[in-house]
Amino acid sequence: MKFSTRLIFLLLLLFSLGISVVAYSQNPSRISCPEAAQFYAKDSINIVTFGASTVEGVKGVGFQAMLKSNFENCYTNKVVDITNHGIGGQTTIQGLLRIDNAVKDRTGFIVISMGINDALAITSGKGSLAETEANMRQLIAISLKQKLVPILCTLQNVDDRNNPTLATSNSNIRALNAIYRRLATEYKIYLADVNAAMRRDFTLYQDAFHPNARGYRLISYVIFDAINKAIFDKFLMFVVSQNYPNPAASQTYLDIVLPETDKINLQVFDLMGRLVKTVINEYLNTGKHTLEINTTSFVPGIYIFKITSDSGQYNVAKKFIVAR
C-alpha cells in the first residue's frame, strides 16, 4: 500500500512538472520579473525608441510590442507607453536632425539604437568613427537635457559570412561598440548590450542586417533588463514592510527598500517609549534589504520599531508583538 501511495505521488509530481514545462515552452514570452517591479515609484513607464531600421521594425516585426508586453507582465497597474522613432537607412547625423521632435515633451527613458548605417557608410569611404562618436554624444546630450534616461544599445553584427565588404563593416561595428561602451561609462548612462546577446548567431536574423522575431524578442529582453537596472537605481519608492513573523518568538524580520543610499537607524521601543534595542545605525545602499530583530531578550508584549534616516527623508514606525 505504501508503494502504491508513493508511486501515485511520484506520478502526480511528474505530471505537474510536465504541465509546467509544456506551459513554458508554449509561451516563450514569459519572463522573470525583476524585484524593482514591486517598488517602482511612478504610475507609468514611458519609453522613446530612437534609431534606424532595427528600431523601425522590418517586415512587420519589431521589438516595441514585445518590450511593452514584458513591462505589462511585470509592472501591473502601470501605464506603458512606447513610441517608435525609427527610420530605416538613417545614419546618426540624420538622427540628429529629428531627435528634438522625438523627445519633445517626453519623460522617462530613451532607447538609442543607431550606427549600423554609419558603419556601412564608413566602409564605403563616407564619414568616420570620430564623426559618429560626435553625433552620438549630441544625441545623448539632447536626451539628458530633456531629463530622459538614455539606454544606449550596442550594434548587432551584420552577416558577413559570404561578403568581404560586410566583414569590413563588422570591423567598424566593433569599433563603434567600443566607443558606445566608453560613452555609457563616461556619461553614466545605461548600456543595452545587444551585440553581446546576439553574438554571431545568424539564426536570429531575417536577412544580413535585421533580426527575425526570435532576434527581436532577445533584443526586447536586453533592453528590458537595462531599463530595469535604471529603475532600480533611480525610481524605487521607499518601502518598509510589516515585520514577519508577527507575533515574533526569538527573531523577526522586516524588509526595507531604499531609493538611494542613506544612513538608516532601526530602533525598538516599548509602549512607554523607552528604547529597548538599537538594531542598526549604518549606511545602506539603494535597493531592498532584509533586517533581523533578535527578540530573545524581549519580554512578551507589544513593541514599536522605528526607522529614521540620516537625511531626514524617511521616518516610519510600526507596532509588533513578541509572544512565546
Can you characterise this structure?
The chain has 324 residues and is of the alpha/beta class. The protein has two domains: 29-234, SGNH hydrolase (Rossmann fold), CATH 3.40.50.1110; 239-322, Macroglobulin (MG2) domain (Immunoglobulin-like, Sandwich). Helix content is 39%, strand content 26%. It contains ten helices and twelve strands. The protein has a five-stranded parallel sheet, with helices on both faces. A hairpin with a 5-residue loop joins strand 11 (301-309) and strand 12 (315-322). Helix 3 (64-74) crosses helix 10, helix 6 (116-123) packs across helix 8 (164-187) and helix 7 (129-145) runs parallel beside helix 8 (164-187). The longest helix is centred in the first third of the chain and has 25 residues, at 2-26. The radius of gyration is 26 Å and the shape is elongated. It starts with a helix and ends with a strand. 33% of the residues are buried. Mean pLDDT is 91; it is low at 1-28.
